[in-house]
């Protein structure tokens, strides 16, 4: 079974050691730098917005832990979990990595905090009725995205954050995504964008 390959015990005294050891086991240790950067950024945002800094750091370290699963195995992994797969996710299986990272975080790393699992589950697409903690990880991941060039939306996002507008920062990114970088429209992202657009207009 596919899931038995990846749902394995982890070793290490600290979460950082556990994450690194898990990645090394699958030859994905180079991803640790991105995980660490997102964790540190999420911690900073959590401090700014009065959220749990420790939980934000944990969420950041684990948000992409399912990088160990090849995209061609993601649908099979999800099928074995018995979880519904959306059409957008079948078209672009990499989108499943956010849900699968939450599964690995819970089953391999022992994460039980609902807020952490929720944030990991939607860190790529966001979702309707997202909490501030969800937004915290979502934006940390977008600030520290794993591409070589500077994020083109970064200045606007940082301005919104400096003004204390966490949800507006998320909307700025989503608007950029839908106009410039969308490969497939995930319904969670669409619902999040619609809700944020409506709620922020009222303010």
User: What general outline do the C-alpha atoms trace?
Assistant: globular
Category from helices, strands and their pairing: mainly alpha
Distance between the termini: 50 Å
The total count of helices amounts to 12
**Range of helix content:** 55-70%
Low-confidence stretches: none
User: Rounded to an integer, what's the Rg over CA atoms?
Assistant: 16 Å
- Give the rounded overall mean pLDDT: 95
Order of helices and strands: HHHHHHHHHHHH
- In total, the number of strands is 0
Strand content: under 5%
The largest β sheet comes out as: none
Question: Which key phrases capture this entry?
Answer:
12 helices, 65% helix, mainly alpha, 203 residues, single chain
Provide a quick synopsis of the model:
It contains 12 helices and no strands.
Provide structural commentary.
- There is one protein chain.
- With 203 residues, the protein is mostly helical.
- Helices cover 65% and strands 0% of the residues.
- It has twelve helices and no strands.
- The chain has helices at residues 2-6, 15-25, 32-48, 53-62, 71-81, 87-91, 97-107, 114-121, 132-143, 154-162, 166-181, 187-202.
- The protein starts with a helix and ends with a helix.
- The mean pLDDT is 95.
């Amino acid at each position: 079974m596919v899931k038995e390959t990846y749902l394995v015990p982890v070793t290490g005294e600290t979460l950082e050691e556990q994450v690194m050891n898990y990645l090394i086991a699958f030859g994905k240790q180079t991803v640790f730098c991105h995980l660490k950067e997102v964790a540190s950024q999420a911690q900073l945002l959590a401090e700014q917005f009065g959220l749990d800094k420790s939980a934000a750091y944990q969420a950041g370290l684990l948000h992409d832990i399912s990088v160990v699963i090849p995209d061609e195995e993601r649908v099979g992994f999800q099928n074995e979990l018995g979880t519904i797969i959306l059409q957008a996710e079948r078209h672009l299986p990499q989108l499943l990595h956010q849900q699968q990272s939450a599964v690995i975080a819970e089953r391999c790393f022992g994460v039980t905090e609902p807020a952490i699992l929720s944030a990991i589950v939607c860190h790529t697409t966001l979702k309707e009725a997202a909490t501030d903690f969800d937004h915290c990880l979502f934006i940390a991941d977008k600030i520290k995205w794993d591409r070589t060039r500077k994020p083109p939306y970064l200045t606007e996002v940082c301005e919104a954050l400096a003004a204390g507008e966490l949800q507006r920062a998320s909307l700025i990114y989503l608007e950029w995504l839908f106009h410039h970088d969308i490969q497939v429209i995930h319904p969670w992202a669409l619902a999040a964008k619609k809700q944020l657009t409506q709620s922020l207009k009222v303010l």
